[in-house]
Amino acid sequence: MFSVDAINKTSEQQYLAVKGSCQLSGHLKVSGAKNSALVLMAASLLTEEKVELKNIPSLTDIDFMSTILIKMGVEINRELHTLFINPKEFYDVTLPGELVHCLRASFFCIGPMLARLGKAKIPLPGGCQIGSRPVDEHIKGLKALGACIKTEKDMITANILDGNKRLKGANITLNYPSVGATETILMAATLAEGTTTIQNAAQEPEVKDLINMLNSMGALITGEGSPILKIEGVRKLNGCSHTAIPDRIEAGTFLIAAAITRSNLLVGPVIKEHLTSVLEKLKECGCEIIEEKENYLKIIPKEIKGVDITTSPFPGFPTDLQAPFMALMTTAKGKSTITETVFEKRMQHVKELQRMGANIQLNGSIALIEGSDQLKGTNLTGGDLRSCAAIALASLSSEGQSIIKGLHHLDRGYEKFEQKLNKAGANISRNQSRVNKNVQLKNELGMHHKLGIKQEAA
Fold first, then answer.
1. pLDDT tens by residue, 171-189
2. Does one domain contain both 303 and 430?
3. Cβ(19)–Cβ(208) under 8 Å?
4. 312: domain range?
5. Which residues are catalytically annotated?
6. pTM: predicted TM-score of the whole model, two decimal places
7. Which terminal Cβ of the chain has fewer Cβ within 10 Å, N or C?
8. Long-range contacts for 379-382 (Cβ within 8 Å, ≥24 apart)?
């Protein structure tokens, strides 16, 4: 059986050794979007038929979600980057707190559980500790659809009291355009009786990806890409084959990796429209961006100067790229200001960048940065997924070697992070003791056996 503690401890006991003053070249391949893949997996619970999901990255978060679905009776087989999901035997179960606390996206299961089974019992979610991310908007939306929801200690219990066990369409206005709440309500409303409208809905590409999958399953959803969504409830959904969009956050991270090392690089596949705000800031700070071929971007950094950014929901600058972009600004000429408006604890990378010699003054969620000629490699620890990526990028451009811990965060959201960068010319090694390597191998083999994974040749 897959062990959450084991996989977390394995990553916690590993570290990256990153040699600085690196020059990159060639092509960095972008994987499928983690934030799409997780909700697409949850959406598969809405049907009794088989679902094929393509372009799914190999990440610990995907393993966690797979294990959660398996515990609910879902059959999952994996072949490289494709998941074959058979949810026919999906049944009601209290989701294990151990897994749910590790993966915030597991809360997405509550909508499909309610819609298909009429009840759900799920612990409050966890994930990266980057501030308050309450599920109040999720719960408010589900209550509007007719669910009876009780919260006791760390557990949420939801039921449909109506005799026919169907949710009812409703008009729902979100106080904040939460991606998670939008997706939870969308999934629940597909099988509801009547029409549901969601106003002030999130417009992120991952929401549109979910809508495209649900519509291919027979849902009737209109308004994708806009702040107003309309869902006409249907009696049942069918199986489907769906390909997840490229990961815009990984693509942005790689583009910033090129900029911080002053390297010409080809990054793709990408959907350019998903990166508009990021590309604008990269151009503003001194990078040339060329569409080399379909779905690929070539970045040519020149003199990098300081620019200001403020994070906001899509189509604004993504909070998930705030930390990597700050790393870039520490190497820029002049001053810059970075303002975080989405998560109040998303400045965990500041102290680590300061340890490398970065000149950053932090005032709450506003960072004032004065660029430095040369960062210095040192011992670093990533406190969350994106901060770990940020200090890795800073280490690529620094003088000397850096040791980076906290890889259990990095492995949640970046597939083969160091391998991809090494193919482009980086010098990064992942290190651990021989005993830990044996533990990791045992865990991986156990997970592969459980999921029916066919391993890719080395």
1. 999 999 999 999 999 999 9
2. yes
3. no
4. 4-31+246-439
5. 128
6. 0.90
7. C
8. 379/403, 379/405, 380/352, 380/355, 380/356, 380/404, 380/405, 381/352, 381/405, 381/406, 382/349, 382/352, 382/406, 382/407, 382/409, 382/410
